[in-house]
Amino acid sequence: MAQLTHDVEKHTALYVEAFNAGDVDAVNAMYTQDAVAVWEPGVPLAGQARIDSVRDFLSRGPRMTAVPRQSFVTDDTALLVVDWTIDTTDEEGNPEHLEGVGLDVLCRGADGNWRYAIDDPYGEK
Amino acid sequence: MSFTVDIDFDKPDLTADTDTQNEIFLQVFNSGDGELFDKLYRADSISNFSGQPLTGAARLAFFKEFLATKPKLQAEVTHAWVAGDAALIGVRFTIDGTDQDGKPMHLEGTCTDVLRRGADGRWLMAVDRPVAGSLLPE
């Protein structure tokens, strides 16, 4: 069940909830059709590759925390600077801790809901 | 002021091309004309150049005051992610100018820019966010 919001301040928390529930469809529904995700630095994913990557990543049962440290919100566009951590398992099944400061660009659609257009989790270097 | 880039300030467009965006941004900034520079932003766009998030009339007033001192901006694009009608651009920049006491001022850092394409197809600045120092002289 996708949970979208008209309140951009709530978007990050809803995303964490869907992510930690392992809900692939809900996570993917929080992106625009054209969204670009840069989960591996320097490697932008879009379209089906991005959608498939969410399925693969969530299959390992990762746990995320994410808190926006800055937000800049215009009528239909937002830039969030987000402190995040993910605890997951690597391909050998060993625990893996990931963290970073992400740059998220969100766009408000015609339906009033905010969605990620660009998800760059290592954007702030 | 003459520009080598093609820009119509009645219908400003940073274009879909990242290098052209950067070149227009540089040339208009370096023209020293804050009123023209402000036209590269949408009415509700947020600029953090002053160290504070400014929009509307406050943003225009800052650009006019700051650019009147003719700071020289250089910038190169480090990465660009384009998602339909939204783009996130990373640039590395330096600014050389003079502070309020007439002393040389040098600033450098990185900047994140968010651009949007409007319904009429024109690309404009939505958010700029320089880090590693504000651009205001101390």
UniProtKB/TrEMBL annotation, chain A:
<protein>
    <submittedName>
        <fullName>Uncharacterized protein (TIGR02246 family)</fullName>
    </submittedName>
</protein>
<dbReference type="InterPro" id="IPR037401">
    <property type="entry name" value="SnoaL-like"/>
</dbReference>
<dbReference type="Pfam" id="PF12680">
    <property type="entry name" value="SnoaL_2"/>
</dbReference>
<feature type="domain" description="SnoaL-like">
    <location>
        <begin position="15"/>
        <end position="113"/>
    </location>
</feature>
<dbReference type="InterPro" id="IPR032710">
    <property type="entry name" value="NTF2-like_dom_sf"/>
</dbReference>
UniProtKB/TrEMBL annotation, chain B:
<dbReference type="Pfam" id="PF12680">
    <property type="entry name" value="SnoaL_2"/>
</dbReference>
<dbReference type="InterPro" id="IPR032710">
    <property type="entry name" value="NTF2-like_dom_sf"/>
</dbReference>
<protein>
    <recommendedName>
        <fullName>SnoaL-like domain-containing protein</fullName>
    </recommendedName>
</protein>
<feature type="domain" description="SnoaL-like">
    <location>
        <begin position="25"/>
        <end position="123"/>
    </location>
</feature>
<dbReference type="InterPro" id="IPR037401">
    <property type="entry name" value="SnoaL-like"/>
</dbReference>
